[in-house]
Amino acid sequence: MADAASRLKGLVEQLLGTPFPLRIRAWDGSQAGPPDAPALVVRNRRALRRLLFKPGELGLARAWVAGDLDIDGDLYTALDHLSGLIWERDEDARSLGSALRDPRFRSAVRGLFALAGPPLPPPAPEEEARRPRRGLHTRRSDRRAISHHYDVGNDFYELVLGPSMVYSCAYWQTPPPEGTLEEAQRDKLDLVCRKLALRPGVRLLDVGCGWGSMAIHAAREYGVNVVGITLSQEQAAYARKRVADEGLTDRVEIRVQDYRDVRDGPYDAISSIGMAEHVGSERYLQYASVLHRLLVPGGRLLNHQIARRPQRDEKSYQVDAFIDAYVFPDGELSPVGTTVTDLERAGFEVRDLESLREHYALTLREWVARLEADWDRAVVLSSYGRARVWRLYMAASALAFERNRIGVNQILAVKTPESGDSGLPLRTRTWH
């Protein structure tokens, strides 16, 4: 009988209809495939049962998070090879019915079941978000989703993000290794402040304030008064301590508050950095309308948001299964054009759009490097499965930005008054 790796390689290639680009190392120590390629390590038969009972990305994610699957070699190279075979092919339960009509596909599935052993589906890893799909983006469901992602432990985020504690795309004026992540995050915050034309006496609302970095930078460097809101209790506690340590409690207030519950406008400016991805497409117009209402006439909004590529049939858009289950429950990405349209429908005048796609790829690779460099401590601070979630999610996201599968944009919008005076200079890029 052939060894497990050779059998598995043959069955996988039969399923995919193309050569498998990685080396396979199976639980019995056998190996098959290109000797110079990264190895897909199948640690046990349980990995196959996860894939058979949850075909596609979710089954792969569960096997990865549990440690049943691993990569030996360069993770980025392996993910780049696999993305074209699996994620971009969208081989999941939705297409399984038609695939099973192919006799060769059915034969390969039977072979995998025989190789996998007793057909009992393993339980999902404990890191998987479990929640009802009804009532998305209510106040309660949004709090639960934010808690799943952000209440992992501030020490863990310090390890990954570094001293800046900024969890969004940095702005690299000097790429690494000459430029540092801390410099790039400081420059990003400063870029936002300049786009918003912050100055002493201005009142700023920072929506999704995270650990307080934007609020602190704006108050310390530009003399503004800031209200920062978050749904994460752990973020808020951390941010309040930082504000106190900086001696800025008279100018910065951190609240645990939903954006829909902010009633103390108007504000002169609003920053929304990495927040809108959590809002959901059905709620985005409402979100934009709330921010528009909270601004003074002539007030500015800086919306910093990840965007996906548009699809021919937007109704067919499906939230990424791995991201939804393990990273950002209920999060959704929209094309940048849709975001611009919703902002305009809410009453904003969109005045500038700047893509930072390549900047986010650099940022993510820096975060991955920090995680890998202090791996044992990351596991202690979170969990084995959680650390694996973050390593896979950030590395795969870096590749997605590099390959233009997703992007990130800063949109500057103004609540332009009836007079038409936007308050912006004739050449808006003077902030550079």
TrEMBL record:
Membrane spanning stretches: none
Biased composition annotated in UniProt, kind: Basic residues: 131-141
Region span, Disordered: 117-141
Signal peptide (from-to): none
GO molecular function, one term: methyltransferase activity
Keyword Plastid: no
Pfam families: CMAS (PF02353)
Keywords: Lipid metabolism, Methyltransferase, S-adenosyl-L-methionine, Transferase
Domain of life: Bacteria
A Gene Ontology BP annotation from the UniProt entry: methylation
Gene3D superfamilies per record: Vaccinia Virus protein VP39
Family as reported in the entry's similarity comment: Belongs to the CFA/CMAS family.
Protein name: Class I SAM-dependent methyltransferase
Source species of the chain: Streptomyces composti
